[in-house]
Design a protein that fits this description.
Oligomer: heterodimer
Bound molecules: adenosine-5'-triphosphate, magnesium ion
CATH class of chain A: Mainly Alpha
Largest interface: A-B, 18 and 25 residues
Shape of chain A: globular
Structural class of chain B: alpha/beta
Number of domains of chain B: 1
Shape of chain B: globular
Strand content of chain B: 25-35%
Number of strands of chain A: 4
Strand order of the largest sheet of chain B: 6-7-8-3-9-10
Order of helices and strands of chain A: EEHHHHEEHHHHHH
CATH superfamily of chain B: P-loop containing nucleotide triphosphate hydrolases
Number of strands of chain B: 10
Chain lengths: 295, 230
Protein backbone atom coordinates (compact mmCIF):
# COMPACT_ATOMS: atom_id res chain seq x y z
CA UNK A 1 0.00 0.00 0.00
CA UNK A 2 1.15 3.55 -0.82
CA UNK A 3 2.51 5.18 2.33
CA UNK A 4 3.21 8.76 3.41
CA UNK A 5 5.66 9.23 6.28
CA UNK A 6 5.02 5.64 7.25
CA UNK A 7 1.24 6.01 7.32
CA UNK A 8 -1.12 4.48 4.73
CA UNK A 9 -2.04 7.14 2.16
CA UNK A 10 -5.82 6.47 2.13
CA UNK A 11 -5.95 6.95 5.90
CA UNK A 12 -4.03 10.15 5.52
CA UNK A 13 -6.23 11.53 2.74
CA UNK A 14 -9.36 10.37 4.48
CA UNK A 15 -8.47 12.27 7.63
CA UNK A 16 -7.37 15.24 5.59
CA UNK A 17 -10.81 15.37 3.97
CA UNK A 18 -12.55 14.99 7.33
CA UNK A 19 -10.35 17.78 8.61
CA UNK A 20 -11.28 19.99 5.66
CA UNK A 21 -14.97 19.33 6.29
CA UNK A 22 -14.71 20.29 9.93
CA UNK A 23 -12.60 23.23 8.82
CA UNK A 24 -15.37 24.26 6.42
CA UNK A 25 -17.77 24.54 9.36
CA UNK A 26 -15.21 26.21 11.62
CA UNK A 27 -14.53 28.78 8.90
CA UNK A 28 -18.20 29.61 8.24
CA UNK A 29 -19.08 29.78 11.92
CA UNK A 30 -16.06 31.78 13.02
CA UNK A 31 -16.52 34.11 10.04
CA UNK A 32 -20.04 34.95 11.23
CA UNK A 33 -18.74 35.45 14.76
CA UNK A 34 -15.99 37.72 13.46
CA UNK A 35 -18.41 39.87 11.46
CA UNK A 36 -20.71 40.20 14.48
CA UNK A 37 -17.90 40.86 16.93
CA UNK A 38 -16.37 43.53 14.70
CA UNK A 39 -19.56 45.54 14.46
CA UNK A 40 -21.47 44.80 17.67
CA UNK A 41 -18.56 44.14 19.98
CA UNK A 42 -20.32 41.14 21.44
CA UNK A 43 -19.31 37.51 21.39
CA UNK A 44 -22.41 35.82 20.02
CA UNK A 45 -22.77 32.72 22.16
CA UNK A 46 -26.07 31.98 20.43
CA UNK A 47 -24.15 31.20 17.23
CA UNK A 48 -24.15 27.44 17.69
CA UNK A 49 -27.85 27.42 18.46
CA UNK A 50 -28.58 29.43 15.31
CA UNK A 51 -26.45 27.00 13.27
CA UNK A 52 -28.63 24.21 14.68
CA UNK A 53 -31.75 26.25 13.94
CA UNK A 54 -30.62 26.56 10.32
CA UNK A 55 -30.48 22.76 10.05
CA UNK A 56 -33.91 22.39 11.65
CA UNK A 57 -35.42 25.02 9.36
CA UNK A 58 -34.08 23.07 6.37
CA UNK A 59 -35.59 19.89 7.83
CA UNK A 60 -38.92 21.63 8.44
CA UNK A 61 -38.99 23.13 4.95
CA UNK A 62 -38.44 19.65 3.48
CA UNK A 63 -40.87 17.74 5.67
CA UNK A 64 -43.73 20.22 5.98
CA UNK A 65 -43.50 22.20 2.76
CA UNK A 66 -41.62 19.83 0.46
CA UNK A 67 -38.98 22.49 -0.17
CA UNK A 68 -35.76 20.82 -1.30
CA UNK A 69 -32.18 21.17 -0.15
CA UNK A 70 -31.14 23.75 -2.77
CA UNK A 71 -33.94 26.13 -1.92
CA UNK A 72 -33.32 25.54 1.79
CA UNK A 73 -29.72 26.60 1.31
CA UNK A 74 -31.08 30.07 0.52
CA UNK A 75 -34.33 30.11 2.52
CA UNK A 76 -33.05 28.79 5.85
CA UNK A 77 -30.40 31.56 6.17
CA UNK A 78 -33.10 34.10 5.32
CA UNK A 79 -35.46 32.70 7.97
CA UNK A 80 -32.74 32.52 10.62
CA UNK A 81 -31.45 35.97 9.56
CA UNK A 82 -34.96 37.37 10.10
CA UNK A 83 -35.00 35.70 13.51
CA UNK A 84 -31.63 37.37 14.13
CA UNK A 85 -33.21 40.76 13.35
CA UNK A 86 -35.81 40.08 16.03
CA UNK A 87 -33.18 38.96 18.56
CA UNK A 88 -31.01 42.01 17.92
CA UNK A 89 -33.86 44.49 18.07
CA UNK A 90 -35.64 42.94 21.03
CA UNK A 91 -32.68 41.97 23.23
CA UNK A 92 -29.12 42.53 22.12
CA UNK A 93 -29.48 46.20 21.09
CA UNK A 94 -30.37 47.06 24.69
CA UNK A 95 -26.92 46.02 25.90
CA UNK A 96 -24.54 48.09 23.75
CA UNK A 97 -24.04 50.68 26.46
CA UNK A 98 -23.12 48.02 29.04
CA UNK A 99 -20.05 45.88 29.55
CA UNK A 100 -19.34 43.18 26.90
CA UNK A 101 -19.98 40.58 29.54
CA UNK A 102 -23.71 41.28 29.44
CA UNK A 103 -23.88 40.54 25.72
CA UNK A 104 -22.07 37.29 26.32
CA UNK A 105 -24.41 36.27 29.12
CA UNK A 106 -27.50 37.25 27.16
CA UNK A 107 -26.52 35.34 24.02
CA UNK A 108 -25.47 32.36 26.12
CA UNK A 109 -28.93 32.43 27.69
CA UNK A 110 -30.55 32.68 24.26
CA UNK A 111 -28.55 29.64 23.14
CA UNK A 112 -29.81 27.64 26.14
CA UNK A 113 -33.39 28.64 25.45
CA UNK A 114 -33.24 27.84 21.73
CA UNK A 115 -31.49 24.50 22.30
CA UNK A 116 -33.80 23.63 25.17
CA UNK A 117 -36.87 24.26 23.03
CA UNK A 118 -35.43 22.13 20.24
CA UNK A 119 -34.64 19.29 22.66
CA UNK A 120 -38.15 19.52 24.05
CA UNK A 121 -39.66 19.28 20.59
CA UNK A 122 -37.37 16.74 18.90
CA UNK A 123 -35.57 14.87 21.69
CA UNK A 124 -31.81 14.58 21.82
CA UNK A 125 -31.34 12.04 19.06
CA UNK A 126 -32.56 14.31 16.30
CA UNK A 127 -34.05 13.72 12.88
CA UNK A 128 -32.46 12.56 9.62
CA UNK A 129 -31.97 14.76 6.55
CA UNK A 130 -31.24 13.06 3.23
CA UNK A 131 -28.33 13.93 0.97
CA UNK A 132 -29.76 15.48 -2.21
CA UNK A 133 -29.74 12.88 -4.95
CA UNK A 134 -27.17 14.42 -7.29
CA UNK A 135 -24.67 14.70 -4.43
CA UNK A 136 -24.98 11.06 -3.38
CA UNK A 137 -22.26 8.48 -3.93
CA UNK A 138 -18.51 8.85 -4.07
CA UNK A 139 -16.00 9.98 -6.66
CA UNK A 140 -12.78 8.12 -7.36
CA UNK A 141 -10.00 10.69 -7.17
CA UNK A 142 -7.34 8.13 -8.02
CA UNK A 143 -5.70 8.28 -4.63
CA UNK A 144 -8.93 7.92 -2.66
CA UNK A 145 -12.70 7.70 -2.85
CA UNK A 146 -14.35 10.96 -1.88
CA UNK A 147 -18.01 11.09 -0.86
CA UNK A 148 -19.38 13.71 -3.24
CA UNK A 149 -21.48 15.45 -0.60
CA UNK A 150 -18.41 16.01 1.58
CA UNK A 151 -16.50 17.53 -1.30
CA UNK A 152 -19.48 19.79 -1.95
CA UNK A 153 -19.50 20.98 1.67
CA UNK A 154 -15.88 22.05 1.44
CA UNK A 155 -16.49 23.78 -1.89
CA UNK A 156 -19.70 25.52 -0.82
CA UNK A 157 -18.11 26.76 2.38
CA UNK A 158 -15.06 28.05 0.54
CA UNK A 159 -17.26 29.88 -1.98
CA UNK A 160 -19.41 31.43 0.74
CA UNK A 161 -16.32 32.53 2.68
CA UNK A 162 -14.88 34.05 -0.49
CA UNK A 163 -18.13 35.91 -1.26
CA UNK A 164 -18.31 37.26 2.30
CA UNK A 165 -14.68 38.35 2.16
CA UNK A 166 -15.20 40.07 -1.21
CA UNK A 167 -18.29 41.90 0.03
CA UNK A 168 -16.50 43.17 3.11
CA UNK A 169 -13.17 44.04 1.54
CA UNK A 170 -14.08 45.13 -1.98
CA UNK A 171 -17.53 46.75 -2.01
CA UNK A 172 -18.76 50.11 -0.79
CA UNK A 173 -21.14 48.39 1.64
CA UNK A 174 -18.13 46.57 3.04
CA UNK A 175 -16.18 49.83 3.29
CA UNK A 176 -19.03 51.37 5.29
CA UNK A 177 -19.06 48.31 7.52
CA UNK A 178 -15.32 48.50 8.12
CA UNK A 179 -15.56 52.22 8.82
CA UNK A 180 -18.40 51.73 11.28
CA UNK A 181 -16.36 49.03 13.03
CA UNK A 182 -13.63 51.65 13.54
CA UNK A 183 -15.71 54.71 14.42
CA UNK A 184 -19.48 54.22 14.38
CA UNK A 185 -20.47 57.71 15.64
CA UNK A 186 -18.58 59.42 12.80
CA UNK A 187 -20.05 57.10 10.18
CA UNK A 188 -23.50 57.89 11.55
CA UNK A 189 -22.70 61.62 11.43
CA UNK A 190 -22.10 61.19 7.68
CA UNK A 191 -25.75 60.25 7.30
CA UNK A 192 -25.66 56.49 7.60
CA UNK A 193 -28.27 54.72 9.70
CA UNK A 194 -25.82 52.84 11.89
CA UNK A 195 -28.36 51.16 14.21
CA UNK A 196 -30.02 49.57 11.17
CA UNK A 197 -26.63 48.53 9.85
CA UNK A 198 -25.83 46.84 13.16
CA UNK A 199 -29.10 44.91 13.03
CA UNK A 200 -28.42 43.77 9.47
CA UNK A 201 -24.85 42.79 10.34
CA UNK A 202 -26.12 40.57 13.12
CA UNK A 203 -28.65 39.07 10.72
CA UNK A 204 -25.91 38.48 8.15
CA UNK A 205 -23.64 36.81 10.68
CA UNK A 206 -26.31 34.42 11.90
CA UNK A 207 -27.42 33.75 8.32
CA UNK A 208 -23.90 32.43 7.71
CA UNK A 209 -24.35 30.13 10.71
CA UNK A 210 -27.67 28.93 9.29
CA UNK A 211 -26.06 28.31 5.90
CA UNK A 212 -23.48 26.15 7.65
CA UNK A 213 -26.35 24.42 9.46
CA UNK A 214 -28.04 23.46 6.19
CA UNK A 215 -24.71 22.14 4.84
CA UNK A 216 -24.32 20.11 8.02
CA UNK A 217 -27.84 18.68 8.02
CA UNK A 218 -27.16 15.67 5.73
CA UNK A 219 -23.83 14.87 7.44
CA UNK A 220 -24.81 14.87 11.09
CA UNK A 221 -28.32 13.99 12.06
CA UNK A 222 -30.22 17.22 12.61
CA UNK A 223 -30.18 17.39 16.38
CA UNK A 224 -30.39 19.95 19.18
CA UNK A 225 -26.77 19.44 20.23
CA UNK A 226 -25.13 19.84 16.86
CA UNK A 227 -24.33 23.51 17.48
CA UNK A 228 -23.08 23.04 21.01
CA UNK A 229 -20.71 20.32 19.78
CA UNK A 230 -19.08 22.70 17.34
CA UNK A 231 -19.20 25.99 19.08
CA UNK A 232 -16.53 25.55 21.74
CA UNK A 233 -13.98 24.60 19.09
CA UNK A 234 -15.16 27.51 16.96
CA UNK A 235 -14.51 29.95 19.79
CA UNK A 236 -10.98 28.58 20.01
CA UNK A 237 -10.65 29.16 16.25
CA UNK A 238 -11.83 32.75 16.69
CA UNK A 239 -9.31 33.37 19.44
CA UNK A 240 -6.49 31.86 17.38
CA UNK A 241 -7.42 33.81 14.24
CA UNK A 242 -7.81 37.08 16.14
CA UNK A 243 -11.15 38.41 17.36
CA UNK A 244 -13.01 40.12 14.56
CA UNK A 245 -10.54 39.33 11.78
CA UNK A 246 -12.39 38.26 8.62
CA UNK A 247 -9.49 36.70 6.74
CA UNK A 248 -8.14 35.31 10.02
CA UNK A 249 -11.29 33.36 10.74
CA UNK A 250 -11.43 31.85 7.25
CA UNK A 251 -7.78 30.80 7.09
CA UNK A 252 -7.67 29.65 10.70
CA UNK A 253 -10.95 27.74 10.34
CA UNK A 254 -9.78 25.63 7.42
CA UNK A 255 -6.22 25.38 8.73
CA UNK A 256 -7.19 24.11 12.15
CA UNK A 257 -9.63 21.63 10.64
CA UNK A 258 -6.74 20.17 8.66
CA UNK A 259 -4.41 20.17 11.67
CA UNK A 260 -7.08 18.40 13.69
CA UNK A 261 -7.57 15.82 10.92
CA UNK A 262 -3.88 15.11 10.56
CA UNK A 263 -3.47 14.77 14.29
CA UNK A 264 -6.00 11.92 14.07
CA UNK A 265 -3.48 10.13 11.86
CA UNK A 266 -0.28 10.87 13.71
CA UNK A 267 -1.45 11.01 17.29
CA UNK A 268 -5.13 10.06 17.57
CA UNK A 269 -5.30 10.61 21.33
CA UNK A 270 -4.36 14.26 20.81
CA UNK A 271 -6.92 15.09 18.14
CA UNK A 272 -9.61 16.35 20.50
CA UNK A 273 -7.29 18.78 22.26
CA UNK A 274 -4.90 19.85 19.51
CA UNK A 275 -6.86 23.02 18.69
CA UNK A 276 -6.79 24.08 22.31
CA UNK A 277 -3.07 23.41 22.51
CA UNK A 278 -2.62 25.65 19.45
CA UNK A 279 -4.80 28.25 21.14
CA UNK A 280 -2.65 28.27 24.26
CA UNK A 281 0.53 28.63 22.23
CA UNK A 282 -0.92 31.43 20.07
CA UNK A 283 -2.21 33.27 23.12
CA UNK A 284 1.23 33.09 24.70
CA UNK A 285 3.08 34.26 21.59
CA UNK A 286 0.54 36.60 19.96
CA UNK A 287 -2.23 37.47 22.39
CA UNK A 288 -4.20 39.35 19.68
CA UNK A 289 -4.37 36.19 17.55
CA UNK A 290 -2.60 35.30 14.31
CA UNK A 291 -4.45 37.88 12.23
CA UNK A 292 -5.52 40.25 15.02
CA UNK A 293 -4.48 43.88 15.01
CA UNK A 294 -2.80 45.13 18.17
CA UNK A 295 -3.78 44.01 21.63
CA UNK B 1 -29.18 79.23 7.70
CA UNK B 2 -28.06 78.02 11.13
CA UNK B 3 -29.38 79.46 14.38
CA UNK B 4 -28.04 78.28 17.71
CA UNK B 5 -29.98 79.47 20.75
CA UNK B 6 -29.34 78.65 24.39
CA UNK B 7 -27.38 75.51 23.54
CA UNK B 8 -26.36 73.46 26.58
CA UNK B 9 -24.32 70.25 26.37
CA UNK B 10 -23.04 67.68 28.76
CA UNK B 11 -20.51 64.86 28.74
CA UNK B 12 -21.82 62.65 31.52
CA UNK B 13 -21.89 64.85 34.59
CA UNK B 14 -19.74 67.63 33.10
CA UNK B 15 -21.80 70.57 31.90
CA UNK B 16 -19.69 71.98 29.03
CA UNK B 17 -21.85 74.40 27.03
CA UNK B 18 -23.82 76.97 29.04
CA UNK B 19 -26.21 78.59 26.60
CA UNK B 20 -24.35 79.11 23.33
CA UNK B 21 -25.95 81.67 20.99
CA UNK B 22 -24.88 82.50 17.45
CA UNK B 23 -26.03 82.25 13.89
CA UNK B 24 -24.58 81.64 10.46
CA UNK B 25 -26.13 83.13 7.34
CA UNK B 26 -26.24 81.37 4.00
CA UNK B 27 -23.00 81.75 2.04
CA UNK B 28 -21.02 83.07 5.01
CA UNK B 29 -17.76 81.82 6.44
CA UNK B 30 -17.99 82.24 10.20
CA UNK B 31 -15.38 81.30 12.76
CA UNK B 32 -15.51 80.21 16.35
CA UNK B 33 -12.43 81.51 18.15
CA UNK B 34 -11.46 80.78 21.71
CA UNK B 35 -8.86 79.33 24.00
CA UNK B 36 -8.27 75.61 24.46
CA UNK B 37 -11.18 74.07 26.25
CA UNK B 38 -13.58 76.96 25.52
CA UNK B 39 -16.08 74.54 24.01
CA UNK B 40 -15.59 75.08 20.28
CA UNK B 41 -15.36 71.39 19.38
CA UNK B 42 -18.23 70.60 21.71
CA UNK B 43 -20.34 73.22 19.90
CA UNK B 44 -19.58 71.58 16.55
CA UNK B 45 -20.37 68.11 17.91
CA UNK B 46 -23.57 69.39 19.50
CA UNK B 47 -24.78 70.83 16.19
CA UNK B 48 -24.00 67.46 14.58
CA UNK B 49 -25.76 65.46 17.31
CA UNK B 50 -22.56 63.83 18.53
CA UNK B 51 -22.74 64.65 22.25
CA UNK B 52 -24.47 62.39 24.78
CA UNK B 53 -26.87 65.12 25.95
CA UNK B 54 -27.83 68.52 24.55
CA UNK B 55 -30.60 71.06 25.16
CA UNK B 56 -31.66 74.37 23.69
CA UNK B 57 -32.32 75.03 20.04
CA UNK B 58 -30.37 74.44 16.86
CA UNK B 59 -32.37 75.26 13.74
CA UNK B 60 -31.07 74.58 10.26
CA UNK B 61 -32.94 76.17 7.35
CA UNK B 62 -35.71 76.90 9.82
CA UNK B 63 -36.10 73.29 11.04
CA UNK B 64 -35.32 72.31 14.64
CA UNK B 65 -32.62 69.63 14.84
CA UNK B 66 -31.96 69.44 18.59
CA UNK B 67 -33.77 66.11 18.97
CA UNK B 68 -32.59 64.52 15.73
CA UNK B 69 -30.17 61.60 15.44
CA UNK B 70 -26.85 62.55 13.85
CA UNK B 71 -27.53 60.67 10.62
CA UNK B 72 -30.74 62.66 10.13
CA UNK B 73 -28.91 65.93 10.84
CA UNK B 74 -26.37 64.92 8.18
CA UNK B 75 -29.17 64.18 5.74
CA UNK B 76 -30.64 67.63 6.41
CA UNK B 77 -27.44 69.01 4.86
CA UNK B 78 -24.78 69.55 7.54
CA UNK B 79 -21.38 67.85 7.35
CA UNK B 80 -18.56 67.73 9.85
CA UNK B 81 -14.81 67.59 9.31
CA UNK B 82 -13.78 66.58 12.83
CA UNK B 83 -10.82 67.96 14.78
CA UNK B 84 -9.09 64.54 14.86
CA UNK B 85 -9.82 64.23 11.10
CA UNK B 86 -11.43 60.82 11.40
CA UNK B 87 -9.64 59.10 8.52
CA UNK B 88 -10.38 55.38 8.60
CA UNK B 89 -7.35 53.10 8.79
CA UNK B 90 -9.12 50.10 7.30
CA UNK B 91 -10.21 52.08 4.22
CA UNK B 92 -8.16 53.21 1.23
CA UNK B 93 -7.98 56.90 0.30
CA UNK B 94 -10.66 56.42 -2.34
CA UNK B 95 -12.88 54.45 0.03
CA UNK B 96 -12.51 57.20 2.64
CA UNK B 97 -13.40 59.77 0.02
CA UNK B 98 -16.47 57.88 -1.17
CA UNK B 99 -17.70 56.85 2.28
CA UNK B 100 -20.14 59.69 3.11
CA UNK B 101 -23.27 59.15 1.06
CA UNK B 102 -24.39 61.90 -1.31
CA UNK B 103 -27.38 63.46 0.44
CA UNK B 104 -28.29 66.19 -2.04
CA UNK B 105 -27.29 67.45 -5.47
CA UNK B 106 -24.79 70.30 -5.61
CA UNK B 107 -21.71 68.63 -4.15
CA UNK B 108 -18.40 68.83 -5.97
CA UNK B 109 -17.69 66.11 -8.49
CA UNK B 110 -14.58 63.97 -8.31
CA UNK B 111 -12.77 65.86 -11.08
CA UNK B 112 -13.16 69.14 -9.19
CA UNK B 113 -12.06 67.54 -5.94
CA UNK B 114 -8.96 66.07 -7.55
CA UNK B 115 -8.20 69.46 -9.14
CA UNK B 116 -8.36 71.04 -5.67
CA UNK B 117 -6.39 68.21 -4.01
CA UNK B 118 -4.13 66.53 -6.58
CA UNK B 119 -2.39 64.47 -3.89
CA UNK B 120 -5.58 62.50 -3.25
CA UNK B 121 -5.60 61.25 -6.82
CA UNK B 122 -1.95 60.18 -6.68
CA UNK B 123 -2.49 58.28 -3.44
CA UNK B 124 -5.90 56.83 -4.29
CA UNK B 125 -5.02 53.25 -3.37
CA UNK B 126 -3.06 53.95 -0.19
CA UNK B 127 -4.37 53.14 3.22
CA UNK B 128 -6.10 56.30 4.52
CA UNK B 129 -3.95 56.69 7.59
CA UNK B 130 -0.71 56.25 5.61
CA UNK B 131 -1.17 59.77 4.22
CA UNK B 132 0.76 62.68 5.72
CA UNK B 133 -1.06 64.89 8.23
CA UNK B 134 -1.71 67.52 5.58
CA UNK B 135 -2.99 64.97 3.07
CA UNK B 136 -5.28 63.44 5.70
CA UNK B 137 -6.70 66.88 6.39
CA UNK B 138 -7.32 67.42 2.68
CA UNK B 139 -9.02 64.04 2.51
CA UNK B 140 -11.18 64.88 5.51
CA UNK B 141 -12.30 68.12 3.84
CA UNK B 142 -12.64 66.64 0.35
CA UNK B 143 -14.82 63.84 1.66
CA UNK B 144 -17.56 66.22 2.83
CA UNK B 145 -17.46 68.41 -0.29
CA UNK B 146 -18.83 65.53 -2.36
CA UNK B 147 -22.00 64.97 -0.37
CA UNK B 148 -24.02 68.02 -1.31
CA UNK B 149 -24.19 69.21 2.30
CA UNK B 150 -24.39 73.00 2.16
CA UNK B 151 -23.22 73.79 5.69
CA UNK B 152 -19.71 72.55 6.42
CA UNK B 153 -18.35 72.41 9.95
CA UNK B 154 -14.53 72.50 9.84
CA UNK B 155 -12.88 71.94 13.21
CA UNK B 156 -9.33 73.37 13.21
CA UNK B 157 -8.43 72.29 9.68
CA UNK B 158 -5.04 74.04 9.86
CA UNK B 159 -3.94 72.63 13.21
CA UNK B 160 -0.31 71.50 13.14
CA UNK B 161 0.13 71.91 9.38
CA UNK B 162 2.94 73.53 7.38
CA UNK B 163 2.31 77.10 6.08
CA UNK B 164 2.05 76.00 2.45
CA UNK B 165 -0.69 73.52 3.32
CA UNK B 166 -2.44 76.12 5.47
CA UNK B 167 -2.47 78.36 2.40
CA UNK B 168 -3.92 75.57 0.29
CA UNK B 169 -6.68 75.04 2.81
CA UNK B 170 -7.30 78.79 2.83
CA UNK B 171 -7.67 78.75 -0.96
CA UNK B 172 -10.03 75.81 -0.69
CA UNK B 173 -12.25 77.59 1.81
CA UNK B 174 -12.45 80.70 -0.38
CA UNK B 175 -13.19 78.50 -3.39
CA UNK B 176 -16.05 76.64 -1.72
CA UNK B 177 -17.46 79.92 -0.39
CA UNK B 178 -17.49 81.17 -3.99
CA UNK B 179 -19.44 78.06 -4.92
CA UNK B 180 -22.11 78.94 -2.39
CA UNK B 181 -21.22 76.68 0.52
CA UNK B 182 -21.62 77.98 4.05
CA UNK B 183 -18.76 77.30 6.46
CA UNK B 184 -18.50 77.29 10.24
CA UNK B 185 -14.82 77.18 11.05
CA UNK B 186 -13.08 76.61 14.35
CA UNK B 187 -9.67 78.27 14.48
CA UNK B 188 -6.98 79.01 17.01
CA UNK B 189 -5.05 81.01 14.44
CA UNK B 190 -7.03 84.23 13.94
CA UNK B 191 -4.52 85.54 11.40
CA UNK B 192 -5.55 82.65 9.19
CA UNK B 193 -9.19 83.13 10.14
CA UNK B 194 -9.02 86.75 9.04
CA UNK B 195 -8.08 85.68 5.51
CA UNK B 196 -11.21 83.60 4.97
CA UNK B 197 -14.01 84.66 7.31
CA UNK B 198 -16.84 87.18 7.29
CA UNK B 199 -17.48 87.20 11.03
CA UNK B 200 -15.87 85.82 14.16
CA UNK B 201 -17.57 84.57 17.29
CA UNK B 202 -15.46 84.40 20.42
CA UNK B 203 -16.13 81.59 22.90
CA UNK B 204 -15.16 81.36 26.52
CA UNK B 205 -16.20 78.85 29.20
CA UNK B 206 -18.93 77.32 27.09
CA UNK B 207 -20.52 80.60 25.94
CA UNK B 208 -20.24 82.96 22.99
CA UNK B 209 -19.03 86.21 24.54
CA UNK B 210 -18.48 88.44 21.49
CA UNK B 211 -18.93 88.81 17.76
CA UNK B 212 -16.46 90.72 15.60
CA UNK B 213 -17.08 91.34 11.89
CA UNK B 214 -13.96 90.63 9.88
CA UNK B 215 -13.63 94.21 8.66
CA UNK B 216 -13.53 95.41 12.29
CA UNK B 217 -10.85 92.90 13.22
CA UNK B 218 -7.94 95.34 13.03
CA UNK B 219 -9.71 97.78 15.34
CA UNK B 220 -10.40 95.01 17.83
CA UNK B 221 -6.96 93.46 18.02
CA UNK B 222 -6.37 94.37 21.65
CA UNK B 223 -9.68 92.91 22.72
CA UNK B 224 -8.99 89.76 20.74
CA UNK B 225 -5.55 89.35 22.28
CA UNK B 226 -7.14 89.50 25.70
CA UNK B 227 -9.81 86.94 24.75
CA UNK B 228 -7.37 84.51 23.27
CA UNK B 229 -4.53 85.14 25.69
CA UNK B 230 -1.96 85.45 22.95
N1 LIG C 1 -15.47 63.44 25.73
C1 LIG C 1 -15.37 64.33 26.74
N2 LIG C 1 -15.71 63.96 28.00
C2 LIG C 1 -15.62 64.86 29.03
N3 LIG C 1 -15.22 66.12 28.89
C3 LIG C 1 -14.88 66.55 27.66
C4 LIG C 1 -14.94 65.68 26.52
N4 LIG C 1 -14.54 66.36 25.43
C5 LIG C 1 -14.25 67.60 25.87
N5 LIG C 1 -14.45 67.73 27.21
C6 LIG C 1 -14.25 68.94 28.00
O1 LIG C 1 -15.08 69.94 27.48
C7 LIG C 1 -14.44 71.19 27.49
C8 LIG C 1 -14.52 71.82 26.12
O2 LIG C 1 -13.79 71.00 25.24
P1 LIG C 1 -13.74 71.28 23.67
O3 LIG C 1 -13.04 70.14 23.06
O4 LIG C 1 -15.10 71.62 23.19
O5 LIG C 1 -12.82 72.59 23.63
P2 LIG C 1 -12.21 73.34 22.37
O6 LIG C 1 -12.65 74.74 22.49
O7 LIG C 1 -12.52 72.63 21.13
O8 LIG C 1 -10.66 73.23 22.71
P3 LIG C 1 -9.40 73.05 21.71
O9 LIG C 1 -9.09 74.40 21.19
O10 LIG C 1 -8.32 72.55 22.62
O11 LIG C 1 -9.77 72.08 20.68
C9 LIG C 1 -13.03 70.94 27.99
O12 LIG C 1 -12.97 71.32 29.35
C10 LIG C 1 -12.84 69.46 27.86
O13 LIG C 1 -12.02 68.98 28.89
MG1 LIG D 1 -11.41 71.60 19.77
Amino acid sequence: MFMILGYPAPLMFGQLLLGLINGAFYALLSLGLAVIFGMLNIVNFAHGALFMLGAFVAWGLLNFLGINYWAALILAPLVVGAFGVVLEKAFISRLYKLDHLYGLLLTFGLALVIEGLARNEFGSSGVPYPIPSILQGAANLGFMFMPIYRGWVVLASAIMCLITWLVIEKTSIGATLRAATENAPLVQAFGINVPRMITLTYAGGVALAAFAGVLAAPIYSVNPNMGANFIITVFAVVVIGGMGSILGSIVTGFGLGVIEGLTKVFYPQGSSVVIFVVMVIVLLVRPAGLFGKGA
Amino acid sequence: MLEVRGLNSWYGESHILHGVDFDVKEGEVVTLLGRNGAGKTTTMKSIMGLVPRREGSVTFKGAETIDLRSDLIARAGIALCPEERGIFASLSVTENLMLPPVIAPGGLDLATIYALFPNLKDRAGSQGTKLSGGEQQMLAIARILRTGAKLLLLDEPTEGLAPVIVQQIGRTIREIKKRGFTVLLVEQNFRFAATVADRHFVMEHGRVIDMIPNHDLAANMDKLHTYLGV
